[in-house]
Amino acid sequence: MGIELVILGEGEGKMPTECYSCARVRRKMIFDAMRNRGITTVAFGHHKDDVNETLLLNLLQKGEFAAMEPKIYFYRYGVTLIRPLYFVEEKEIVSFARGAGFLRFVCQCPIGQHSKRKETKMLLEFIQKKFPHTKTNLFHAIENYGSKKALLEPKK
Predict the structure, then answer these.
(1) What angle do CA 24, 27, 31 make, to 5 degrees?
(2) Is 3.40.50.620 the CATH number for 19-149?
(3) What is the reported pTM?
(4) Per-domain boundaries in the chain
(5) pLDDT at residue 113 above 90?
Protein backbone atom coordinates (compact mmCIF):
# COMPACT_ATOMS: atom_id res chain seq x y z
CA MET A 1 0.00 0.00 0.00
CA GLY A 2 3.04 2.27 0.11
CA ILE A 3 2.54 3.26 3.74
CA GLU A 4 5.73 3.98 5.65
CA LEU A 5 6.08 2.32 9.05
CA VAL A 6 7.69 4.67 11.53
CA ILE A 7 8.70 3.41 14.96
CA LEU A 8 9.35 6.12 17.52
CA GLY A 9 10.97 5.61 20.86
CA GLU A 10 12.08 7.54 23.88
CA GLY A 11 14.91 6.20 26.00
CA GLU A 12 13.92 4.63 29.27
CA GLY A 13 14.43 6.90 32.23
CA LYS A 14 13.59 9.99 30.16
CA MET A 15 9.84 9.52 30.36
CA PRO A 16 7.87 11.34 33.07
CA THR A 17 6.55 9.26 35.93
CA GLU A 18 2.87 10.00 35.49
CA CYS A 19 0.53 8.86 32.72
CA TYR A 20 -0.67 12.32 31.71
CA SER A 21 2.86 13.65 31.20
CA CYS A 22 3.97 10.46 29.46
CA ALA A 23 1.03 10.75 27.03
CA ARG A 24 1.95 14.37 26.25
CA VAL A 25 5.56 13.37 25.52
CA ARG A 26 4.38 10.53 23.24
CA ARG A 27 1.94 12.81 21.41
CA LYS A 28 4.63 15.46 20.88
CA MET A 29 6.97 12.80 19.45
CA ILE A 30 4.25 11.67 17.04
CA PHE A 31 3.39 15.23 15.99
CA ASP A 32 7.05 16.12 15.45
CA ALA A 33 7.57 12.98 13.32
CA MET A 34 4.46 13.89 11.31
CA ARG A 35 5.68 17.43 10.71
CA ASN A 36 9.06 16.10 9.53
CA ARG A 37 7.26 13.91 6.96
CA GLY A 38 4.64 16.43 5.85
CA ILE A 39 1.79 14.38 7.38
CA THR A 40 -1.14 16.47 8.64
CA THR A 41 -3.66 13.93 10.01
CA VAL A 42 -3.28 11.14 12.53
CA ALA A 43 -5.85 8.65 13.88
CA PHE A 44 -5.72 7.67 17.55
CA GLY A 45 -7.53 4.62 18.93
CA HIS A 46 -9.50 6.30 21.74
CA HIS A 47 -12.97 4.82 22.16
CA LYS A 48 -16.23 5.78 23.85
CA ASP A 49 -15.12 4.47 27.25
CA ASP A 50 -11.91 6.52 27.05
CA VAL A 51 -14.02 9.61 26.37
CA ASN A 52 -16.25 9.00 29.41
CA GLU A 53 -13.28 8.20 31.63
CA THR A 54 -11.53 11.39 30.55
CA LEU A 55 -14.59 13.47 31.39
CA LEU A 56 -14.90 11.91 34.85
CA LEU A 57 -11.15 12.19 35.48
CA ASN A 58 -11.14 15.87 34.50
CA LEU A 59 -14.19 16.59 36.68
CA LEU A 60 -12.66 14.89 39.72
CA GLN A 61 -9.02 15.97 39.27
CA LYS A 62 -9.31 19.45 37.77
CA GLY A 63 -12.90 20.57 38.21
CA GLU A 64 -13.25 20.90 34.44
CA PHE A 65 -16.04 19.65 32.20
CA ALA A 66 -13.66 18.53 29.48
CA ALA A 67 -13.50 15.39 27.40
CA MET A 68 -11.87 14.22 24.20
CA GLU A 69 -13.23 15.52 20.91
CA PRO A 70 -13.63 13.22 17.89
CA LYS A 71 -11.59 15.65 15.77
CA ILE A 72 -9.15 18.29 16.93
CA TYR A 73 -6.81 20.60 15.08
CA PHE A 74 -3.62 21.33 17.04
CA TYR A 75 -2.50 24.78 15.91
CA ARG A 76 0.91 24.50 17.52
CA TYR A 77 1.81 21.49 15.37
CA GLY A 78 -0.41 22.00 12.32
CA VAL A 79 -1.85 18.53 12.89
CA THR A 80 -5.40 17.19 12.87
CA LEU A 81 -6.08 14.33 15.27
CA ILE A 82 -9.08 12.12 14.56
CA ARG A 83 -10.60 9.41 16.74
CA PRO A 84 -12.51 7.06 14.44
CA LEU A 85 -13.50 4.77 17.33
CA TYR A 86 -15.00 7.66 19.34
CA PHE A 87 -18.54 6.21 19.29
CA VAL A 88 -17.50 2.56 19.79
CA GLU A 89 -17.51 0.95 23.23
CA GLU A 90 -14.37 -0.83 24.40
CA LYS A 91 -16.20 -4.15 24.78
CA GLU A 92 -17.19 -4.02 21.09
CA ILE A 93 -13.58 -3.48 20.08
CA VAL A 94 -12.40 -6.34 22.32
CA SER A 95 -15.06 -8.64 20.88
CA PHE A 96 -14.11 -7.74 17.30
CA ALA A 97 -10.39 -8.16 18.02
CA ARG A 98 -10.93 -11.60 19.55
CA GLY A 99 -13.08 -12.69 16.62
CA ALA A 100 -10.46 -11.46 14.14
CA GLY A 101 -7.63 -13.19 16.03
CA PHE A 102 -5.78 -9.96 16.84
CA LEU A 103 -3.06 -10.21 19.42
CA ARG A 104 -3.76 -8.54 22.74
CA PHE A 105 -1.55 -5.62 23.68
CA VAL A 106 -1.12 -4.90 27.37
CA CYS A 107 0.46 -1.75 28.74
CA GLN A 108 3.86 -2.68 30.17
CA CYS A 109 4.16 0.46 32.27
CA PRO A 110 4.08 -0.44 35.98
CA ILE A 111 2.62 2.99 36.79
CA GLY A 112 -0.19 2.63 34.24
CA GLN A 113 -1.69 -0.26 36.16
CA HIS A 114 -2.12 1.95 39.25
CA SER A 115 -2.86 5.31 37.66
CA LYS A 116 -5.65 7.79 38.32
CA ARG A 117 -7.04 6.85 34.88
CA LYS A 118 -7.19 3.18 35.93
CA GLU A 119 -8.87 4.18 39.21
CA THR A 120 -11.35 6.33 37.28
CA LYS A 121 -12.15 3.39 34.96
CA MET A 122 -12.89 1.20 38.01
CA LEU A 123 -14.95 3.98 39.62
CA LEU A 124 -17.00 4.41 36.46
CA GLU A 125 -17.65 0.65 36.34
CA PHE A 126 -18.81 0.79 39.99
CA ILE A 127 -21.11 3.76 39.32
CA GLN A 128 -22.49 2.03 36.21
CA LYS A 129 -23.60 -0.91 38.38
CA LYS A 130 -25.52 1.45 40.68
CA PHE A 131 -26.84 3.70 37.90
CA PRO A 132 -27.17 1.65 34.69
CA HIS A 133 -27.45 4.66 32.37
CA THR A 134 -24.31 6.41 33.66
CA LYS A 135 -22.07 5.82 30.63
CA THR A 136 -24.83 6.72 28.17
CA ASN A 137 -25.76 9.85 30.12
CA LEU A 138 -22.16 11.00 30.48
CA PHE A 139 -21.63 10.59 26.76
CA HIS A 140 -24.83 12.52 25.97
CA ALA A 141 -23.61 15.31 28.26
CA ILE A 142 -20.31 15.36 26.37
CA GLU A 143 -22.15 15.56 23.04
CA ASN A 144 -24.39 18.37 24.32
CA TYR A 145 -21.90 20.40 26.35
CA GLY A 146 -18.49 19.07 25.25
CA SER A 147 -15.27 20.92 25.82
CA LYS A 148 -13.95 23.12 23.04
CA LYS A 149 -10.82 23.90 25.07
CA ALA A 150 -8.51 21.92 22.76
CA LEU A 151 -9.87 23.75 19.72
CA LEU A 152 -8.74 27.18 20.87
CA GLU A 153 -5.78 28.83 19.21
CA PRO A 154 -2.84 29.25 21.58
CA LYS A 155 -2.40 32.62 23.27
CA LYS A 156 0.32 34.69 21.68
Answers:
(1) 135
(2) yes
(3) 0.81
(4) 19-149
(5) no
